[in-house]
Please model this.
Amino acid sequence: MPSRRYPLLPLASVLVVATGAAHADEGMWTFDNFPSELARQRYGVAIDSDWLEKVRLGTVRLSGCTASFVSPNGLILTNHHCVASCLAQNSTRESSLIDTGFISAGREQELDCPTQIADVLEKLENVTTKVQEATRGLAERDANERRRQTLTELEIACESTSRTSGNPLKCEAVTLYGGGQYWLYQYRRYDDVRLVFAPENGIAAFGGDPDNFQFPRWCLDFSLLRAYENGRPAATPHLSIDFDGPAPGDPVFVSGHPGSTDRQLTVAELKSLRDRELPPTLLRASELRGRYIQFAKTGEQADRIVQDALFGLENSLKVQRKQLDALLDDGLMAAKQQAESELRASVARNRALAAEIGDPWQRIEQALAVEAARRLPYEYLEGGVGFNSRLARYARTLVRAAAERPKPNAERLREYTDGFLPRIEQQLGAPVPIYPELERLTLSFSLERMREWLGPDAPIVQRMLTAETPDEVAARLVGGSRLADPAFRMQLWNGGQAAIDASTDPFIVLARSLDAEARELRKWHEDEVEAVVEAAHEQIARARFETLGTSVYPDATFTLRLNFGSVQGWNENGAPVAPFTRLGRMFERATGQPPFRVPASWEQAKASLDLSTPFNLSTNSDIVGGNSGSPLIAADGRIVGLLFDGNIHSISGAYWFDVEKNRAVAVHPAIIREALTKVYKTAPLIEELGLAD
Model:
């Protein structure tokens, strides 16, 4: 199924987004197909191949975020919230680096981020013809399996060739246009990433959840990492920073990795999201948020323990709530229906195409009806919704890996092929703190929801929750497990199937007992739903190509994209919203209580600060989740901002682009300069970034 994770046009304009070439400053363009001529016509800027290559090599993909190299010594600029996991992993019950921030006194004091990676896209190869030839003439199920095998084989061959050439790269198969194109994206990977600088959460996320997805904003949402290679700072191409930033109306470009959009989904798929997927997800998340908040109120340690998880959950809740609002807009859904009808009519007029592809929209509807019958068991068992626990996820990974690793690479589940194993091993071996009380809370909660949604007579519920309550099951599993110890996890990893079979760890025992049923549900979903939908999407993509070619951009897939736009505000309820905020207003908004409390470091430095310094800015850039940390780049190739959020209207960008109100929000580089030179006085960074007088 298409990914459905992240983040309003005037009604007439929705049709343009749905089926026509992009208008306004909409578009998440691949680097091989960037519309340079359109950018020249609209903004008078010349974007050539050298510019594109410099920006591509200076842009970094992190785990779930984007970043950029900003020095020749591997220094990486990204958001504070993109390093929150690293801060949490280096925190304790007694002290939270999320609260206090972190400043490295020198490179030898930089902190390891044990689960972080940094990828740079070095090469792109179009392999569409190879994939299509491998699946031509096969039935949907067989084609789906052969497609997966072919993509794995292409990844293997790509990585083997790169190693032979002396330039080892991480090769990933990328699906674009819903199966209309297949590419191999080849990355240089840095798996030794260390934390250099992070401000206090009080200034990085000033305004907290009330201000999230709002503007005006005053968030110093930036941090610095460093990539290492062979124990030394990596030698990296980089982008320089223009600390004076942009002016209103200036053209700007966003280079980043937008996570997921669903702008090319069919009406049936959008309705399935609206009616079947988002409502129960929001219900679960809302209740879990309440439990997190109550847990945090039990003491200072509990508040620190749950801080990172609560932030992520609150952010997801707001995104999903606004996505549901967008899908409940009857006018926009009607416009999407009209656009789809027009595309189907164009297919009907092309008799040869119609005879070849038939009615893929109807086949998707039929597949979604099949999915509905077993959706809940699939989500709760194979999807892991019923077992919300880091320890349970470790156990699932270890049990699955032991079974998959002995198989030929092309026959494994995709996430256990050789290309993914080093990353799995890194995560299993990382010394990440695990708090039993939080594990019990999330696991017990998810077991309760499984009993509620599957019903007390479901076989899995009867096996697990007849003799024990969810609280008792969670206490027994968490209390009896050794999986919180990375050394123990690595023993099981290295011991393979024999070690897994012999293990009496309660989470491993549970994962073993669930695996056969979960695999059966996965196979059903792949054969009866995914195979049908993926084949239908390929055929719909062909219909779009017949009409539009590649004059439209593909949905976001957490792969590198480039967007162009300009610095601008918008009108809200008849009043203009200016595109810049200033430092002085933050102090005026401060209440002395979280989330509007200014950290002591800033209060102490206030007399030396220039209160007119630009703080945050807004642009009409087309971004979604995954773009966090993306550099905002001027036409001269210099960084003039750091993307960290969108306004509330941007969330509907998962499905369509609002020309009038969709805005991205960035940290202005001038406030970064003010912070480093006057508040934190970080001499090594000041020199490395060229800020020394």
